[in-house]
Give the backbone structure.
Amino acid sequence: MKEYERQVTIINQGLPTQARLKVIQLPTSWYAVIWENQDRYASVSQDRSDRNGGHEHLTDDEFLGRVQLVASFVQGIDFLYDAVVPQRKKRDRRTH
């Protein structure tokens, strides 16, 4: 089992709005929930089939692209993954 949690921006429900995506990936299926707030959320899932080819061979980015595609197709929710802000590295302040 793998879990993913990402900040997303929903782009087709009026003004762009922030939401949280949580995905649980199991060996033969996955389940995702998109939370805008406690009153607005949606779920989407997919089981492995001959038609979709499963997901075990996909990289993390490819898998999350699949989640994005299925959410748009099944629930009509279009979203973008928010950019990840890199952590600043601490400078090594050794004195010589």
